[in-house]
Write a structure and sequence with these properties.
The complex is a heterodimer of chains A (353) and B (211). Chain A has 353 residues and is of the alpha/beta class. Chain A is built from 18 helices and 8 strands. Chain A has 2 domains: 129 residues, Glutathione S-transferase Yfyf (Class Pi), Chain A, domain 2; 185 residues, Rossmann fold (3-Layer(aba) Sandwich). In chain A, the strands form 2 sheets. A 4-stranded parallel β-sheet of chain A has the order 2-1-3-4. In chain A, strands 6-5-7-8 form a 4-stranded parallel β-sheet. In chain A, strand 7, helix 14 and strand 8 form a beta-alpha-beta unit. With 211 residues, chain B is an all-alpha fold. Chain B is built from 14 helices and no strands. Classes of the chains: A alpha/beta (353), B mainly alpha (211).
């Protein structure tokens, strides 16, 4: 009987991966990659909090990088990243907040790892306190709750669904749009208990898609990394590593004819957008029947689009893989001429209506 | 000379290296193993051996530089190991001891220092729009090239605050904040670490330029 109980206790239960997500009062932490390549996405997250969900947040200009890209590219020592993370928590303490909400999946991984290390090795927490005080005169306490920004949109997916102007439906066929979800590796692969659904069945994005009327595609390479690889990408001679893994995913999802890809990681979004362009340029291959390629959007961009925000203000003109076919499928009412003109200008082409 | 005691006290080693049962799950799902002749399982085996000669050989080789840090291995290992985190410790100690200079891929760390390190020192960001040039990043494509040359217009359309003080995307980080960041980088050893990477690679290049 005892053995049976032990066996039961060793099972992995779904409830182990249902995380507590703070409901209000967020101290928002931006992403280096998102700010650079898709800055409108972060702005839309804050717009949705303020205008659609009536949620209070702090966007502190004194925050900086978390140095996570440097850490995973191996130029930032452990003590350095711990102290930088501690400075961010100190700023949160100063502003009176205790719920730390993070835009970047790399930062989310870095912060959950720091909190875990401080818990498992208390001497590292003491050393971090000492380093922070010595270098900045600051003190800090860790946050009461930590969440990725996609957790917040997941939490409020039904409230958002109630306000949607459009749904994930193909206006020409009336069918649900077919969607590939790509969850960034560091969201749940490092600490599965910090991700909605854990590492094996992450549902943070798929439940948004379901709530907003779309249909999720399950495909063989669904959990495969986008291929960022940190130093593998930043060093030109190994950049093929990154391309190869995105290509693996495109080849695997192609037979299921996705209408778009939704991501929660700034890097994944950029790579899956850009590598389709590279593959098209070098081999002529595209992964959609219309030869456009598969649009790649973040969850904030999708939420904002469906809520009726303007595609240009969302920043969809900054995507390399053209988003226009998706806007048309969704039946979005927008200034198409302006969008096409901007696209033509950036592609150095004559506008074609 | 690897400081064996310090290496095995690194929290990344203590926390992520339990007895490996050689099941090969990490290797089967590892993206780096798909791309390179690489097995994270081998990393675990060498580090678990506590053999200083094998460890030095590993830290001097390209082998530790193949991992892409996705941490897929951590999610699936039935023993709770994380070869990807062990790699972080191996790479740190390889650089600290100078062994990285014996590896071509290791010497590329100087590129990371001069790009990512410089960005975060100069701007307070690991990545900054002004540094993603077409020459360095042709894969970014024509839309990015247009954004790069029309930054004020592009960023203002999405209400970003590029290079301006105040809150918002790609805002200018104030001098006071940068002083704190520089103080942390210096006080926690990052600046010395970077100088050491550059000097070690320069010494290697000088010693090998006529070979």
């Amino acid at each position: 009987m005892e053995a049976t109980n032990k066996q039961i206790n060793n099972k992995i239960y779904w409830r182990d991966y249902v995380k507590d997500i703070p409901k209000n009062d967020y101290f928002f932490f931006r992403s280096c990659i998102r700010q650079t390549f898709f800055p409108g996405a972060e702005q839309m997250f804050l717009n949705i909090l303020k205008n659609n969900l009536n949620i209070n947040y702090k966007d502190d200009p004194n925050l900086t990088t978390c140095t996570g890209i440097g850490y995973h590219s191996d130029i930032i020592p452990l003590e350095t990243i711990h102290t930088i993370v501690a400075r961010h928590f100190s700023l949160m303490n100063e502003s009176g907040y205790s719920n730390f909400v993070i835009s970047c999946v790399t930062t989310f991984g870095v912060m959950t790892e720091a909190l875990n290390t401080w818990h498992e090795f208390p001497e590292t927490l003491e050393k971090t306190r000492e380093n922070l005080y010595k270098t900045t005169g600051r003190t800090f306490e860790p946050p009461k709750a930590i969440a990725h920004a996609s957790d917040i949109i997941y939490l409020y997916r039904n409230e958002i669904a109630n306000q949607l102007k459009y749904r994930l439906t193909n206006q020409y066929t009336g069918e649900p749009l077919k969607v590939v979800d790509h969850v960034g590796c560091h969201y749940a692969k490092i600490f599965p208990q910090h991700g909605v659904g854990g590492a094996e069945f992450p549902k943070v994005l798929s439940e948004m898609v379901n709530a907003w009327g779309g249909e999720i595609i399950d495909y063989p390479a669904r959990r495969h990394c986008c291929g960022f690889g940190f130093r593998q990408y930043f060093i030109k001679e190994s950049r093929g590593y990154s391309l190869t893994h995105s290509q693996t995913k495109f080849e695997s999802m192609e037979p299921y004819h996705p209408d778009f890809i939704i991501t929660n990681c700034p890097g994944c979004n950029m790579f899956m957008d850009r590598w389709q362009y590279v593959i098209q340029e070098t081999t002529g291959k595209t992964y959609s029947e219309d030869d456009n390629g598969i649009p790649v959007l973040t969850y904030e961009e999708i939420a904002a689009l469906l809520l009726g925000y303007d595609p240009i203000e969302i920043g969809l003109f900054m995507h390399q893989t053209n988003v226009l076919p998706l806007l048309e499928k969704l039946g979005i009412d927008f200034d198409k001429e302006q969008f096409i003109a901007m696209r033509a200008e950036s592609m150095q082409l004559q506008p074609q209506m | 000379m690897i400081p064996i005691e310090e290496f095995y006290s690194d929290p990344r080693i203590v926390e992520n290296l339990n007895a490996c049962i050689n099941c090969g799950v990490c290797t089967a799902l590892c993206p780096a193993a798909d791309y390179y002749d690489y097995e994270p399982r081998y990393i675990e085996r060498v580090v678990l051996s506590h053999d200083p000669v094998a460890l030095e050989e590993l830290m001097s080789s390209d082998y530790i530089w193949y991992c892409g840090q996705c941490m897929s291995c951590k999610a699936r290992c039935p023993r709770g190991n994380a070869p990807g985190v062990v790699i972080s410790a191996l790479r740190y100690w390889s650089q600290k001891t100078g062994l990285f200079a014996k590896s071509k891929m290791g010497r590329n760390q100087v590129i990371i220092k001069q790009t990512i390190g410089q960005n975060l020192y100069d701007f307070g960001y690991c990545v900054h729009p002004s540094k993603v040039t077409h020459e360095a990043h042709p894969e970014q494509g024509p839309v990015w090239e247009w954004v790069f040359h029309n930054q004020k217009k592009a960023y203002s359309l999405v209400n970003a605050n590029i290079d301006q003080e105040g809150a918002g995307p790609v805002r200018k980080i104030t001098d006071k904040t940068m002083e704190e960041i520089h103080s942390i980088l210096k006080g926690t050893g990052a600046i010395d670490f970077w100088d050491h990477i550059e000097k070690t690679v320069a010494d290697y290049d000088n010693n090998n330029k006529n070979k």
